[in-house]
Design a protein that fits this description.
Chain lengths: 275, 275
């Protein structure tokens, strides 16, 4: 289904709970875990597939973002998804479109620094999808930890009528977080990409051993990543899990997150300590 | 009723259509005309009264904006309004609030130039009220013409699920547009304030006589206002009724709008030509 009016008309007829899983397609087991949870918890499931141009900056990978529509549809059919919503760009952003949702402070750090405008794009398209689908619950992955914080903030601030469900990151057997962008990695890069998980595991280990000085953990993580010649650090952060403000000392729940370029592919990952 | 959760719980029980009239209180016949139309067109009517601090700039009249809660409630009771929603500021903007809705181009002109940030405040609070009340229809006055354009743009851009109804400006017998701010005018200023309506009437007359050169009409309007010693022009505009871009020649519907200070009170008014 590609038309907003068509989806709204169908939605108007649904009486039970509706779960929405917003995606950019090129689905992996992380997406499918969200779909299965939505299936378990709602009477109907809607999955949207939309590579949203407004959340990509100039020079980012909008054009090269991987797409495989037929495979996606086949996977979602297997999961008994009720509606797959695949709007064209001009359906979401017709001529004259000029509105946006901005979420403050929590968008100004981490990804927001590296990708200015990214979260305005995300918040705006997610607000649109919420209004189009009117879901009872919407499902997002912890893999995009800051996105989860931003969306929860938007929903609370604007009094939106739905529940946000954040599901755990799904990983490959060796620990690499599933991501549609992993397809860009050649075999050497795929091996190097494991450095993200090794750095997060090191943070977990140091924390378990009693380390609470955030800078000490950041330093050890960065040193580990720098040993990998194919890796280039964008950021290594230990921040308050809700505020996203960098911590000196870990007391409450802390989000340990990082963005690292492996060759030309930018990967992100995170864990929560003390949560 | 002052609590969002309480209103949402009640709203969840309503099965028929709901009309919302958002106001800042100190109600006049313009507001009451909106309430009556909402009453005619919906099974239930909600009126919100909230002097929204975020749509007032520094040095504007938030503190002195007129308030008379008891009189407002009595008037709305007479109109058989089902729910009057009067949230305190901290209910609408609790600690940590940091989101906002921005509407582009159409907010950058007219009031948006004189009152930077005003329409972000308006769009954000209106989006919140729409999510809290989930109205079938929401009612606004043509008196705030640009606000009407901004809200219609927001609703279309963000795919909000309601109908926006814009009702004609209600005027005093001598032509002065009703406004809560008129209470600030002393008797001399009240007389001088009629210059807004006289300028708009002049524009209507020139247009009826065949004048299509916008600058000629603006010039005649400004000259008329300048004859009034208590009046100080903020802007006199003839713009496309949807784009709000200043026109050279009037071809389609044109919004003739103006903002004028009468003493220390800033008044706005407008008419549409060729609509």
């Amino acid at each position: 289904m590609s038309q907003i009016a068509e989806l709204k008309a169908l939605r108007g007829k649904a009486t039970g709970s509706v779960g929405l899983v917003p995606t950019m397609g090129y689905l992996h087991d992380g997406h499918l875990a969200l779909v299965r949870q939505a299936r378990d918890e709602n009477e109907a499931v809607v999955v949207s597939i939309f590579v949203n141009p407004t959340q990509f900056g100039a020079g980012e990978d909008f054009a090269s973002y991987p797409r495989d529509h037929e495979r996606d549809l086949a996977l979602l059919k297997e999961e008994r998804v009720d509606i797959v919503f695949v709007p064209p760009v001009e359906e979401m952003y017709p001529a004259g479109f000029c509105s946006g949702v901005e979420v403050g402070r929590v968008t100004e750090r981490l990804e927001g620094v590296s990708r200015p405008g990214h979260f305005r794009g995300v918040a705006t398209v997610v607000a649109k999808l919420f209004n189009i689908v009117e879901p009872t619950r919407a499902y997002f992955g912890q893999k995009d930890a800051q996105q989860a914080v931003v969306i929860e903030r938007m929903v609370a601030d604007l009094n939106m009528n739905l529940e946000i469900v954040i599901a755990p990151t799904v990983r490959e057997p060796d620990g690499l977080a599933m991501s549609s962008r992993n397809i860009h990695l050649n075999s050497e890069e795929r091996r190097a990409a494991l450095v993200l998980w090794r750095a997060l595991s090191l943070a977990q280990q140091l924390f378990s051993q009693g380390e609470r000085q955030a800078e000490s953990i950041r330093h050890r993580m960065s040193a580990l990543i720098q040993e990998e010649p194919l890796a280039s650090i964008d950021y290594v952060s230990i921040a308050g899990a809700a505020s996203l403000e960098e911590l000196a000392t870990i007391e409450g729940p802390a989000l340990v997150s990082l963005a690292v370029r492996i060759g030309s592919t930018r990967l992100i990952d995170n864990i929560v300590l003390g949560g």
